[in-house]
Amino acid sequence: MFRPLIVYIGLRYTRAKRRTRFISFITLTSVLGIALGVTALITVLSVMNGFEAELRERILGMTAHATISGRDGPLRNWHSLEPLLALQKPVQGWAPYIEGQVMLTADRRVSGAMLRGVLVDFEPRVSEVAQHIERGKLEALKPGEFGMIMGEELAQFLGLLPGEQVTVITPQMNATPAGVLPRLKRFTLVGTFKVGMYEYDRNLALIHLDDAAKLFRGEEGVTGLRLKLDDLFQAPRVTRDLGKLLGSSFYVADWTKAHDNFFRAVQTEKRVMFIILLLIVAVAAFNIVSTLVMVVTDKRADIAILRTQGMTPAEVMGVFMVLGTVIGLFGALLGAAGGIGLALNVSSIVPWIEEQLQVKFMPGDVYYISELPSKLVWSDVLQITGIAFVLSLLATIYPAWQAARIKPAEELRYE
Question: Are 203 and 88 contained in the same domain?
Fold first, then answer.
């Protein structure tokens, strides 16, 4: 039967006497071990949540949630689809585009790039590129003027500033008296953008849709329509419905077909990291076993006296479970506080460390994101703290059971 005396004795054993200083030191290391494990687990999962959220935001901020293209070639008469799309509630916006791989050359430097033709009035409906323009503005792309806006990293590589010219080399060929030559066209750089993702900042350039049609000889139509949905996670269902509605002459795809494997890999990595770091918490939690075994060994005579005074084996077991529970609870709560503090401030702590050490932990040309993001999910905090506490509680069972088996007569025979 539960009695306050059990809690009192369990809490009393957490305080050290002179001859049990070493046991108290082991107890402190158990608490710190659990705290460090919980802190590391919360921080790492928050960083991975931040990575996933940033990647999804940046990738889907520049690419479409869904696309409609022609089944057998360019999408012709795309304006005829607008009344139908306007009736679809999940579709928030759409924009035509013409896209192709090209080579860009300027000042004896050459780089491959994805060239995308867009309409200035439609593009903000489906992408956030206008919000990330560093120099110039999206409205500077005017038909017939052959202006270009490219990623900041790409412009730096080519050594270009707004107002300077860049030559575009397309895969299409021109038949000339000198032979078959690739098509060349000069464009003027009118702006740069920086979305903070190397894949786009280094490899994407935008021009006006009419200029792209002339460049790629796509006067008959566009590559397709890019769609923005109100809920990107419903993209597979929406694209299936649109595919049935539009018929077999159109091909409708969603972002999961292009990026699903990538996000699945992030989720898998997150689960693996959770399991690996949880093992650290488990090792720290089971340090409680050694701590309680030492306490039981030191307190055998006390346990025998308590038994002679009427304490049952179950109550003796409860005393040491209280002791282990206090260690685990304090360690879990301390770790949760440390993990929350780190997760909320990691975006400012890491730049400070980089500045002090003069290093860059995540260079943009290697990683998708050059900053360390963090997104604290409270359900993760509760889950991790709860698991750490449960592991600590399980670790108390064996030492407490051993304490309950102590026989008073044998322990007090020589006292």
Answer: yes
